[in-house]
Protein backbone atom coordinates (compact mmCIF):
# COMPACT_ATOMS: atom_id res chain seq x y z
CA UNK A 1 0.00 0.00 0.00
CA UNK A 2 1.25 3.48 -0.86
CA UNK A 3 2.27 5.68 2.04
CA UNK A 4 0.95 9.23 2.32
CA UNK A 5 4.35 10.46 1.16
CA UNK A 6 4.15 8.38 -2.00
CA UNK A 7 0.62 9.61 -2.65
CA UNK A 8 1.72 13.24 -2.20
CA UNK A 9 4.52 12.69 -4.73
CA UNK A 10 2.25 10.98 -7.28
CA UNK A 11 -0.49 13.60 -6.97
CA UNK A 12 2.02 16.46 -7.13
CA UNK A 13 3.42 15.17 -10.41
CA UNK A 14 -0.08 14.50 -11.73
CA UNK A 15 -0.90 18.17 -11.10
CA UNK A 16 2.37 19.26 -12.79
CA UNK A 17 3.69 20.86 -9.61
CA UNK A 18 7.29 21.02 -8.48
CA UNK A 19 8.10 20.66 -4.81
CA UNK A 20 8.81 24.39 -4.76
CA UNK A 21 5.43 25.31 -6.28
CA UNK A 22 3.53 23.05 -3.90
CA UNK A 23 5.48 24.53 -0.99
CA UNK A 24 4.62 28.09 -2.14
CA UNK A 25 0.93 27.23 -2.31
CA UNK A 26 0.98 25.79 1.21
CA UNK A 27 3.23 28.42 2.77
CA UNK A 28 5.91 25.90 3.78
CA UNK A 29 9.49 25.22 2.67
CA UNK A 30 10.21 22.88 -0.23
CA UNK A 31 12.37 20.85 2.20
CA UNK A 32 9.18 20.07 4.15
CA UNK A 33 7.54 18.71 1.01
CA UNK A 34 10.65 16.66 0.23
CA UNK A 35 10.65 15.12 3.73
CA UNK A 36 6.95 14.22 3.41
CA UNK A 37 7.55 12.47 0.13
CA UNK A 38 10.59 10.62 1.43
CA UNK A 39 8.68 9.52 4.50
CA UNK A 40 11.11 11.27 6.85
CA UNK A 41 8.29 13.31 8.38
CA UNK A 42 4.51 13.48 8.10
CA UNK A 43 2.41 16.58 7.33
CA UNK A 44 0.86 18.17 10.42
CA UNK A 45 -2.80 17.35 10.91
CA UNK A 46 -3.70 21.01 10.20
CA UNK A 47 -1.95 20.70 6.83
CA UNK A 48 -3.89 17.67 5.55
CA UNK A 49 -6.93 19.54 4.22
CA UNK A 50 -5.00 22.36 2.48
CA UNK A 51 -2.59 19.77 1.06
CA UNK A 52 -5.43 17.67 -0.32
CA UNK A 53 -7.04 20.68 -1.93
CA UNK A 54 -3.77 21.83 -3.45
CA UNK A 55 -3.54 18.40 -5.06
CA UNK A 56 -7.22 18.48 -6.12
CA UNK A 57 -8.29 15.45 -4.11
CA UNK A 58 -10.29 15.00 -0.94
CA UNK A 59 -8.54 14.56 2.40
CA UNK A 60 -9.90 11.01 2.48
CA UNK A 61 -8.32 10.26 -0.90
CA UNK A 62 -5.01 11.72 0.25
CA UNK A 63 -5.12 9.49 3.33
CA UNK A 64 -6.17 6.49 1.26
CA UNK A 65 -9.79 6.50 2.39
CA UNK A 66 -13.07 6.74 0.44
CA UNK A 67 -14.20 10.20 -0.78
CA UNK A 68 -16.39 12.20 1.56
CA UNK A 69 -19.70 13.74 0.62
CA UNK A 70 -20.14 17.31 -0.64
CA UNK A 71 -17.78 19.80 0.94
CA UNK A 72 -20.00 22.21 2.84
CA UNK A 73 -17.05 24.41 3.72
CA UNK A 74 -16.28 25.01 0.05
CA UNK A 75 -19.92 25.77 -0.64
CA UNK A 76 -19.72 28.46 2.05
CA UNK A 77 -16.59 30.02 0.56
CA UNK A 78 -18.10 29.89 -2.93
CA UNK A 79 -21.15 31.83 -1.76
CA UNK A 80 -18.89 34.42 -0.12
CA UNK A 81 -16.64 34.61 -3.17
CA UNK A 82 -19.45 35.41 -5.59
CA UNK A 83 -20.59 38.28 -3.35
CA UNK A 84 -17.24 39.80 -2.43
CA UNK A 85 -17.57 42.87 -4.69
CA UNK A 86 -20.65 43.92 -2.72
CA UNK A 87 -19.06 43.68 0.73
CA UNK A 88 -16.71 45.67 2.95
CA UNK A 89 -13.27 44.67 1.71
CA UNK A 90 -11.52 44.81 5.08
CA UNK A 91 -14.06 42.45 6.66
CA UNK A 92 -14.00 40.23 3.60
CA UNK A 93 -10.19 40.08 3.62
CA UNK A 94 -10.17 37.65 6.54
CA UNK A 95 -12.67 35.32 4.85
CA UNK A 96 -10.60 35.39 1.66
CA UNK A 97 -7.48 34.54 3.67
CA UNK A 98 -9.23 31.53 5.17
CA UNK A 99 -10.47 30.38 1.76
CA UNK A 100 -7.03 30.72 0.12
CA UNK A 101 -5.36 28.91 3.02
CA UNK A 102 -7.83 26.04 3.09
CA UNK A 103 -8.07 25.68 -0.69
CA UNK A 104 -4.59 26.57 -1.99
CA UNK A 105 -5.29 25.02 -5.40
CA UNK A 106 -8.32 27.24 -6.10
CA UNK A 107 -6.90 30.25 -7.91
CA UNK A 108 -10.23 32.07 -7.78
CA UNK A 109 -9.80 32.26 -4.03
CA UNK A 110 -6.21 33.48 -4.39
CA UNK A 111 -7.47 36.22 -6.72
CA UNK A 112 -10.19 37.01 -4.18
CA UNK A 113 -7.48 37.43 -1.54
CA UNK A 114 -5.24 39.52 -3.83
CA UNK A 115 -8.14 41.80 -4.76
CA UNK A 116 -9.05 42.45 -1.14
CA UNK A 117 -5.40 43.04 -0.24
CA UNK A 118 -5.25 45.64 -2.99
CA UNK A 119 -8.49 47.41 -2.06
CA UNK A 120 -7.72 47.50 1.67
CA UNK A 121 -4.10 48.57 1.12
CA UNK A 122 -5.17 51.28 -1.33
CA UNK A 123 -7.77 52.68 1.09
CA UNK A 124 -7.40 56.07 2.77
CA UNK A 125 -7.22 54.34 6.14
CA UNK A 126 -3.81 52.80 5.44
CA UNK A 127 -2.38 55.30 2.97
CA UNK A 128 1.32 55.92 3.62
CA UNK A 129 1.61 53.22 6.28
CA UNK A 130 3.59 50.00 6.49
CA UNK A 131 0.28 48.14 6.33
CA UNK A 132 -0.39 49.65 2.91
CA UNK A 133 3.03 48.58 1.62
CA UNK A 134 2.65 45.03 2.93
CA UNK A 135 -0.87 44.56 1.56
CA UNK A 136 0.06 45.87 -1.89
CA UNK A 137 3.19 43.71 -1.94
CA UNK A 138 1.16 40.65 -0.89
CA UNK A 139 -1.42 41.40 -3.58
CA UNK A 140 1.31 41.57 -6.25
CA UNK A 141 2.91 38.32 -5.01
CA UNK A 142 -0.40 36.45 -5.05
CA UNK A 143 -1.28 37.75 -8.51
CA UNK A 144 2.07 36.62 -9.86
CA UNK A 145 1.51 33.17 -8.32
CA UNK A 146 -1.77 32.94 -10.24
CA UNK A 147 -0.14 33.91 -13.54
CA UNK A 148 2.60 31.36 -13.00
CA UNK A 149 0.26 28.45 -12.24
CA UNK A 150 -3.21 29.15 -13.64
CA UNK A 151 -4.39 28.54 -17.23
CA UNK A 152 -7.84 30.15 -16.93
CA UNK A 153 -7.77 32.95 -19.55
CA UNK A 154 -10.45 35.13 -17.98
CA UNK A 155 -8.89 34.93 -14.53
CA UNK A 156 -5.42 35.63 -15.94
CA UNK A 157 -6.72 38.76 -17.67
CA UNK A 158 -8.22 40.02 -14.41
CA UNK A 159 -4.90 39.36 -12.69
CA UNK A 160 -2.90 41.18 -15.39
CA UNK A 161 -5.12 44.22 -14.96
CA UNK A 162 -4.59 44.07 -11.19
CA UNK A 163 -0.81 43.84 -11.59
CA UNK A 164 -0.67 46.78 -13.97
CA UNK A 165 -2.67 48.90 -11.53
CA UNK A 166 -0.54 47.82 -8.57
CA UNK A 167 2.78 48.43 -10.27
CA UNK A 168 1.61 51.79 -11.59
CA UNK A 169 0.47 52.76 -8.08
CA UNK A 170 3.93 51.91 -6.73
CA UNK A 171 5.63 53.86 -9.57
CA UNK A 172 7.17 50.72 -11.08
CA UNK A 173 6.24 51.56 -14.64
CA UNK A 174 8.56 49.10 -16.38
CA UNK A 175 6.96 46.19 -14.54
CA UNK A 176 3.50 47.60 -15.27
CA UNK A 177 4.33 47.83 -18.96
CA UNK A 178 5.68 44.26 -19.00
CA UNK A 179 2.38 42.89 -17.75
CA UNK A 180 0.28 45.24 -19.87
CA UNK A 181 1.94 43.82 -22.97
CA UNK A 182 0.87 40.33 -21.87
CA UNK A 183 -2.78 41.33 -22.12
CA UNK A 184 -4.41 39.74 -25.17
CA UNK A 185 -6.13 41.73 -27.88
CA UNK A 186 -9.91 41.37 -27.87
CA UNK A 187 -12.83 43.43 -29.16
CA UNK A 188 -13.86 44.81 -25.74
CA UNK A 189 -10.62 45.62 -23.96
CA UNK A 190 -7.44 46.00 -25.99
CA UNK A 191 -3.80 45.91 -25.01
CA UNK A 192 -3.63 49.65 -25.69
CA UNK A 193 -6.37 50.24 -23.09
CA UNK A 194 -4.21 48.54 -20.49
CA UNK A 195 -0.97 50.19 -21.65
CA UNK A 196 -2.58 53.60 -21.14
CA UNK A 197 -2.61 52.87 -17.40
CA UNK A 198 1.13 52.63 -17.13
CA UNK A 199 2.96 54.46 -19.95
CA UNK A 200 4.41 57.93 -19.44
CA UNK A 201 5.86 60.81 -21.40
CA UNK A 202 6.57 60.27 -25.10
CA UNK A 203 5.40 56.64 -25.01
CA UNK A 204 2.00 57.68 -23.64
CA UNK A 205 1.70 60.56 -26.14
CA UNK A 206 2.52 58.19 -29.01
CA UNK A 207 -0.14 55.77 -27.77
CA UNK A 208 -2.76 58.55 -27.64
CA UNK A 209 -2.00 59.44 -31.27
CA UNK A 210 -2.06 55.80 -32.32
CA UNK A 211 -5.52 55.43 -30.75
CA UNK A 212 -6.76 58.58 -32.52
CA UNK A 213 -5.59 57.23 -35.86
CA UNK A 214 -7.18 53.83 -35.22
CA UNK A 215 -10.42 55.56 -34.18
CA UNK A 216 -10.46 57.54 -37.44
CA UNK A 217 -9.95 54.34 -39.43
CA UNK A 218 -12.81 52.65 -37.59
CA UNK A 219 -15.02 55.70 -38.15
CA UNK A 220 -14.21 55.64 -41.88
CA UNK A 221 -14.98 51.92 -42.04
CA UNK A 222 -18.30 52.30 -40.20
CA UNK A 223 -19.58 55.42 -41.97
CA UNK A 224 -18.54 54.24 -45.43
CA UNK A 225 -20.83 51.24 -45.05
CA UNK A 226 -23.72 53.70 -45.28
CA UNK A 227 -22.72 55.13 -48.63
CA UNK A 228 -20.05 53.15 -50.48
CA UNK A 229 -21.48 50.70 -53.04
CA UNK A 230 -25.01 51.73 -52.02
CA UNK A 231 -27.68 52.51 -54.63
CA UNK A 232 -29.09 55.16 -52.33
CA UNK A 233 -26.04 56.39 -50.40
CA UNK A 234 -26.40 58.30 -47.15
CA UNK A 235 -24.76 61.58 -48.08
CA UNK A 236 -24.92 62.78 -44.47
CA UNK A 237 -22.68 59.88 -43.41
CA UNK A 238 -20.23 60.72 -46.17
CA UNK A 239 -20.19 64.41 -45.24
CA UNK A 240 -19.71 63.54 -41.56
CA UNK A 241 -16.76 61.28 -42.38
CA UNK A 242 -15.03 63.97 -44.43
CA UNK A 243 -15.71 66.65 -41.81
CA UNK A 244 -14.19 64.62 -38.99
CA UNK A 245 -11.07 63.67 -40.95
CA UNK A 246 -10.44 67.27 -41.96
CA UNK A 247 -11.16 68.53 -38.43
CA UNK A 248 -8.42 66.26 -37.06
CA UNK A 249 -5.93 66.59 -39.94
CA UNK A 250 -6.00 70.34 -40.39
CA UNK A 251 -2.85 70.75 -42.51
CA UNK A 252 -4.06 68.58 -45.44
CA UNK A 253 -1.23 66.09 -44.90
CA UNK A 254 -3.76 63.27 -44.87
CA UNK A 255 -1.38 60.32 -45.35
CA UNK A 256 -3.44 57.08 -44.98
CA UNK A 257 -6.69 59.06 -45.06
CA UNK A 258 -6.12 60.08 -48.67
CA UNK A 259 -7.83 56.74 -49.36
CA UNK A 260 -11.01 57.74 -47.51
CA UNK A 261 -11.10 61.20 -49.08
CA UNK A 262 -10.52 59.76 -52.56
CA UNK A 263 -13.40 57.33 -52.05
CA UNK A 264 -15.66 60.19 -50.92
CA UNK A 265 -14.84 62.21 -54.02
CA UNK A 266 -15.49 59.20 -56.26
CA UNK A 267 -18.95 58.83 -54.75
CA UNK A 268 -19.59 62.56 -55.15
CA UNK A 269 -18.68 62.27 -58.83
CA UNK A 270 -21.22 59.48 -59.30
CA UNK A 271 -23.91 61.49 -57.47
CA UNK A 272 -23.15 64.52 -59.65
CA UNK A 273 -23.60 62.40 -62.79
CA UNK A 274 -26.97 61.18 -61.53
CA UNK A 275 -27.94 64.82 -61.11
CA UNK A 276 -26.70 65.70 -64.62
CA UNK A 277 -23.94 67.98 -63.32
CA UNK A 278 -20.98 66.89 -65.44
CA UNK A 279 -18.76 69.80 -64.40
CA UNK A 280 -19.14 68.87 -60.70
CA UNK A 281 -18.46 65.23 -61.56
CA UNK A 282 -15.16 66.04 -63.30
CA UNK A 283 -14.17 68.33 -60.42
CA UNK A 284 -14.85 65.53 -57.90
CA UNK A 285 -12.92 62.98 -59.98
CA UNK A 286 -10.00 65.39 -60.23
CA UNK A 287 -9.95 65.67 -56.43
CA UNK A 288 -10.25 61.87 -56.08
CA UNK A 289 -7.24 61.41 -58.37
CA UNK A 290 -5.13 63.96 -56.44
CA UNK A 291 -5.81 62.12 -53.18
CA UNK A 292 -5.02 58.81 -54.88
CA UNK A 293 -1.67 60.07 -56.18
CA UNK A 294 -0.75 61.46 -52.77
CA UNK A 295 -1.51 58.11 -51.15
CA UNK A 296 0.50 56.21 -53.76
CA UNK A 297 3.46 58.51 -53.16
CA UNK A 298 3.27 57.85 -49.42
CA UNK A 299 3.03 54.12 -50.04
CA UNK A 300 6.03 54.23 -52.33
CA UNK A 301 8.12 55.96 -49.66
CA UNK A 302 6.86 53.49 -47.04
CA UNK A 303 6.73 56.06 -44.24
CA UNK A 304 3.40 57.36 -42.93
CA UNK A 305 4.11 60.51 -40.94
CA UNK A 306 1.62 63.10 -39.70
CA UNK A 307 2.31 66.78 -39.12
CA UNK A 308 -1.06 68.17 -37.97
CA UNK A 309 -1.22 69.32 -34.29
CA UNK A 310 -3.36 66.41 -33.07
CA UNK A 311 -1.18 63.68 -34.66
CA UNK A 312 2.08 65.60 -34.97
CA UNK A 313 5.05 63.23 -35.07
CA UNK A 314 3.00 60.05 -35.23
CA UNK A 315 4.81 57.77 -37.68
CA UNK A 316 4.31 54.26 -39.02
CA UNK A 317 6.93 52.41 -41.05
CA UNK A 318 5.38 50.35 -43.85
CA UNK A 319 8.55 49.62 -45.80
CA UNK A 320 8.46 45.94 -44.89
CA UNK A 321 4.72 45.53 -45.49
CA UNK A 322 3.68 42.97 -48.05
CA UNK A 323 2.33 44.84 -51.07
CA UNK A 324 0.34 43.80 -54.10
CA UNK A 325 2.56 44.73 -57.03
CA UNK A 326 -0.23 45.82 -59.38
CA UNK A 327 -2.36 47.67 -56.84
CA UNK A 328 -2.39 51.41 -56.44
CA UNK A 329 -5.02 53.93 -55.40
CA UNK A 330 -4.55 55.67 -58.75
CA UNK A 331 -5.49 52.48 -60.60
CA UNK A 332 -8.50 52.10 -58.31
CA UNK A 333 -9.80 55.54 -59.36
CA UNK A 334 -9.11 54.74 -63.01
CA UNK A 335 -11.08 51.49 -62.74
CA UNK A 336 -13.88 53.32 -60.95
CA UNK A 337 -14.31 55.71 -63.88
CA UNK A 338 -14.89 52.76 -66.22
CA UNK A 339 -18.44 52.65 -64.83
CA UNK A 340 -20.82 53.44 -67.70
CA UNK A 341 -22.34 56.28 -65.68
CA UNK A 342 -19.27 58.30 -66.71
CA UNK A 343 -19.67 57.63 -70.47
CA UNK A 344 -20.91 61.20 -71.16
CA UNK A 345 -17.51 62.48 -69.94
CA UNK A 346 -15.23 60.40 -72.15
CA UNK A 347 -14.73 63.02 -74.86
CA UNK A 348 -14.13 65.90 -72.45
CA UNK A 349 -10.55 67.14 -72.39
CA UNK A 350 -10.63 67.76 -68.62
CA UNK A 351 -11.76 64.15 -68.10
CA UNK A 352 -8.99 62.77 -70.38
CA UNK A 353 -6.46 64.91 -68.53
CA UNK A 354 -7.16 62.99 -65.32
CA UNK A 355 -5.18 60.05 -66.67
CA UNK A 356 -2.29 61.84 -68.36
Please summarize what this structure is.
By secondary structure, the protein is mainly α.
Could you explain how this protein is built, in words?
With 356 residues, this protein is mostly helical. The chain is built from 18 helices and 2 strands. It has a two-stranded antiparallel ribbon. The N and C termini lie far apart (92 Å). The model has no long low-confidence stretch (mean pLDDT 88).
Within the largest sheet, what's the order of strands? 1-2
Number of helices: 18
Strand content: under 5%
- Give, in order, the helices and strands: HHHHHHHHHHHHHHHHEEHH
Low-confidence stretches: none
Give helix % range: 55-70%
How is the biggest beta sheet arranged? 2 strands, antiparallel
> What's the gyration radius in Å?
32 Å
- Multimeric status of the protein: single chain
Which helices and strands occur, and which strands form pairs?
Blueprint: H1 4-14, H2 19-26, H3 30-38, H4 45-54, H5 59-62, H6 72-81, H7 89-102, H8 107-122, H9 130-149, H10 153-169, H11 173-180, H12 191-195, H13 201-224, H14 235-248, H15 258-274, H16 278-301, E1 303-305, E2 315-317, H17 329-336, H18 349-352
Antiparallel strand pairs: 1-2
List keywords for this structure.
356 residues, mainly alpha, two-stranded antiparallel sheet, 18 helices, 2 strands, 63% helix, 2% strand
